[in-house]
Amino acid sequence: MTSLKTLMLQNLNGQLPTTQGFLDLKNLEYLDLSHTTLNNSIFQAIETMAALKTLKLEGCSLNGQIPTAQGLCDLNHLQELDVSDNDLSGVLPPCLANLTSLQRLDLFSNNLKIPMSLSPLYNLSKLKSFDGSGRGQDVGALPKFFYHQFSLQSLDLANNQIKGEFPNWLIENNTYLQELHLENCSLSGPFLLPKNSHMNLSFLSISMNYFQGQIPSEIGAHLPRLEFLSMSDNGVNGSIPSSLGNISSLQVLDLSNNVLTGRILSNNSLQGQIPIWIWDMSSLEFLDLSGNNFSGPLPPTIGTSSNLRYIYLSRNKLQWPITMTFNGSSQILALDLSHNNLTGRIPEWIGGLSDLIFLLLSYNNLEGEIPIQLSRLDQLTLIDLSHNHLSGNILSWMMFTHHYFVLYPYYYDDMSSSQQSFEFTTKNVSLSYRGRILRYFAGLDFSCNNFTGEIPPEIGNLVMIKVLNLSHNSLTGPIPPTFSNFKEIESLDLSYNKLDGEIPPQLTELFFLEFFNVAHNNLSGKTPARVAQFATFEESSYKDNPFLCGEPLPKICGAVMPPSPTPPSTNNEDNGGFIDMEVFYVTFGVAYIMVLLVIIAVLYINPYWRQVWFHFIEVSINNCYYFLVDNLPILSKFGFS
C-alpha cells in the first residue's frame, strides 16, 4: 500500500476512518474522496502524504473552519485542491500560502469569506483555475488577490455580490484566460472590453447583472474566439452589433431579457428587426433573443449553412405570418415563438423538422387548423399552441413516449444547459422551466382556442406526459378512458368545454396527479371515488356540470327529486292553489303596516291634514252614535240590546 499513487474512494457509505495507519501513504499523488462523509480531521490526517498532487473532497459534509495546524498546509507539491460543495465557513488558513505549486483551487458552494481568505494568498501565482462561486454572499469589491494573477485560464465568481464595474483588467492581465463566469454578481455600468484583442477567451457569461448601455460595437474584434456569450437579464439597449457576426466560432448567443423600464421604449432595450446576418452564422447552434423589443417579420429563409438547433424569440413584438423556412435543415430541436403578434396559419414546413422536441407558439394570433404534418413529429415532448384562434379537430398526436437525452456540446453539461428555458402553464400556474429538468418534461397545451369535435383516444398513448391542458375550447363527447395511461401526469385540465358522459373511474389510478379540472362541461354520473390523489380535489374541480353528482359536490347521487314543478291543490285553494299563502300573509301584513306608517307620518308633519283627519274621525263617531240611537228599537226586535 505504501507504493500506491492513486486512490479513489468516492460515494462511500458511512464515515471513512482517518487513522494514521489508514492514511499513511507516503507516495500517494492522487486522492479522491468526493461524496464520502468526512470530518475536518481529514485535513490533519493527510500530513504524511507529502507527494500528494491532487486532493478532491467535494461534497464530503465538511463544515466549520479548516484547521490551521499541520496537515494540509504541508503539502508543498499539491497542484489541485477541491473542497467544493461543503459547508465550510470563516477564512482559509493563511498557511495555504505555502502551497506555491497550486494550479487549481475549487471553493464553490461554501460559506467562506472570500476576500479575507484570499488576501494572504497573493503569492499563489501559478493558479490556472479558480472557482469561488458562492451562495449569494456580499463580497464587496473584487479581491486584490486577482491583481496578482496572470496565468488564469478559468475563473468563476458567480453568485457573489461583487458590485462595481466590469473588471476588464482581468481579461487584459490573464492572456490565457479561456472561461470567465461573472453571472449574478451585481455588476453595473457599461460592459467594458479589454483594450486589445484577447485571442483565448472562449466562454463569457455576465448574465443577471445590472449592465446598461449598448453592447460595444467592437466586441467581435476584441473577443474574436468566443464560443459562448451570455449577457441575459441585464439592461443593455440598442441593436446587436454586426461585429458579432464575424465571430466564426460563436455557438451560443444569449441576449435575452434585456428590457428596462422607461417612457421611451426604443432607448431602453434591444429593439428593431433581428439582423439578417444572424441566420447565416455557420457555427451558431443556440440563439436566445427572447424578452426584448424586436419587431417586424421573421426572416424568409434560414441559410443552408446554418447549424441552429435552438431558437428562442418569445416575448418580443414580432409580426406578420410565419413565413420563414429552413432550407434542407431538420436539426432544429427547439422553436419558441410564443408571446408575439404573429398572424396567419401554422406553416406546414414545421412538420419537416423531424428532430423537433419543443414547439411553443402560444399567445399569438394564429388561426386555422393544425397542419396534419405536425402529427408526424414523433420526437416532440412539448407543444404549446394555447391562446390563439385555432380551430378544427385535435389531431391524434404521436409524441415521443420515452425519456429523451439530448446530446449537447461539452459546455452544455454544466452551466450552459441552464441557458435553455421556456414558460409553460402547469397546475393552472405559468412557470419557467430551465436547465436539466427539460430532459424529463413532456406536455401538451391547446387551451384557449376554438377547437371542436371529440378528444381523440390516441392521446392516451402519450404515457410519459406530465401536463395536458385542453381547457377553454368547444370540445364535445366523452373523456377518453385511455387517459388512465397517463401514469406520470401531474396536471390535467379539461374545463370550459362541452364534454359529456361520465368521468372514467380508471382516472383514480393516476397517482402523480396534483391538478385536475373538468368544471364547466356537461358531464354526468358520479364523481370519481375519493381515493388517492382524487381525495384532494375540491368542488371547484367539478362545478357547473348540471348532471354530475357525488362528493365533493353538494348534489347527492340518488337523492329523491320533486315529482312535479306544479304543487297539488288543497281544499282551501281551488283555482289559486299555486299561491304560497304563507308568503301572501306576510306580504299583506307588511303592506298594511307600511300604509299605516305613511298615514301617521303625513298627519304628524302636516297640521292641516291632521285637523281634517281628526274632524273626519269625530264626524264618523257621531254618525255611528246617532245611527245606533235611531235604530235601537228595530234592533231590539231581533235580540240586540
Automatic annotation (TrEMBL):
Q: What positions does the domain Disease resistance R13L4/SHOC-2-like LRR occupy?
A: 18-233
Superkingdom of this protein's organism: Eukaryota
Subcellular localization(s) per the UniProt record: Cell membrane
Q: Which UniProt keywords apply?
A: Cell membrane, Glycoprotein, Leucine-rich repeat, Membrane, Receptor, Repeat, Signal, Transmembrane, Transmembrane helix
Mind telling me which Pfam families this protein's record contains? LRR_1 (PF00560), LRR_14 (PF23598), LRR_8 (PF13855)
Note the Gene3D superfamilies from the entry. Ribonuclease Inhibitor
Example GO CC term: the record gives: endomembrane system
Kindly list the residue ranges recorded as spanning the membrane: 583-605
Family membership noted in the UniProt record? Belongs to the RLP family.
* Protein name per UniProt: Disease resistance R13L4/SHOC-2-like LRR domain-containing protein
